[in-house]
Each structure stands twice: as C-alpha cells, then as structure tokens.
Amino acid sequence: MDKPMNKKELLDMSDTRYLNIMTIISELSAKERVKEWKTKERDKNLRDLIYHLYAWHQLLLRWLKILGEGGKPALPKEGYTWDDLDALNHEIWLEAQQHPFMDTLERFEMSHQSCMAMIKELPEEAIFKPYYVQFSHPILSLVDGCMADHYHWALTKMNEHYTQKSES
Questions:
Q1: CATH no., domain 7-13+42-161
Q2: Where are the domains of the chain?
Q3: Global pTM?
Q4: How do residues 139-165 score in pLDDT, each as one tens digit?
Q5: For the chain, what is the HEC assignment?
C-alpha cells in the first residue's frame, strides 16, 4: 500500500478512503448495515468497525492537542503501551456495544472532519520531520495510522463482509 509522501497526499488519501467507506455504507440496506458478521475476529459488525475508527480519531485528536500545547501524550493511551493494543482495542469494542449504528456513523463523520481540519492546520514539517521536541521522530505514522492507513484496513474488512465492493 502506498504511503503518503507529503501533507496533500495524506489528506487526499484519507479523504478518498473515507469517501469509499461512506459510499459502501450508503449502498448497503438498513439490514446489511446492522447484520452480524460470521467471524471470530474482534469486530462483529459494521458498527464495531466504524466505532473503532472513531475511537482512534479521538486518540489522534488528543495526541495532536497535547503536542500542540507542548506536552507529551501517553501513547497510545494512558495505561496502555503499544504492546497492549489488543487490550485497548477490546476496550474500544466494549465501548462500541453501547452505541447504535447511526450514532456511531455520525460520530465517525464528525471525527473524520475534525481530524482533517486539524491535519490541515499542521505545518508539513510537523507531520513529516521530527518537529515536536517531545518526539525524535515524525508523527506521520501516528496520523496515517489513524487516517488513510486505518481506512485502508477498514475497507479491506468491509470488502470481506460485503459484496466485494472495491476501493478505488
């Protein structure tokens, strides 16, 4: 999969994949949108998948806010390390169970727009070069991991469970 080489590519890839997700959802019937998937994986339906993206948007927004204020965010979240991703993602899955699909979809739409707006405000070097004194590496992997790359993962999962609609 292609990695963005500049801020414009990051924004374009994120927005294109977001629109692909929304197109697939818009083409699903109400019944298909809430059907349970036959899977042993964590996400058992479209709501779980979309809430997962929303929750990682919230983490990204928190990280960027803390970095912008000169702080150092707990990565990926207070009480978790990158080795604890399964536990963190399970916590997110449990949260998803509290929300109906349409509420989750609205949250995802709003959080996508919030992330895009915040990324647009960042200088290019803040994304692609070690910019923040709190980090010795670029934040591209954090931003891409919660946006374009994460959307690619979601599209792959959606394609597994629905009528092989393709990502353009």
A1: 1.20.120.450
A2: 7-13+42-161
A3: 0.94
A4: 999 999 999 999 999 999 999 998 644
A5: CCCCCCHHHHHHHHHHHHHHHHHHHHHCCHHHHHCCCCCCCCCCCHHHHHHHHHHHHHHHHHHHHHHHCCCCCCCCECCECHHHHHHHHHHHHHHHCCCCHHHHHHHHHHHHHHHHHHHHHCCHHHHHCCCCCCCCCCCHHHHHHHCHHHHHHHHHHHHHHCCCCCCC
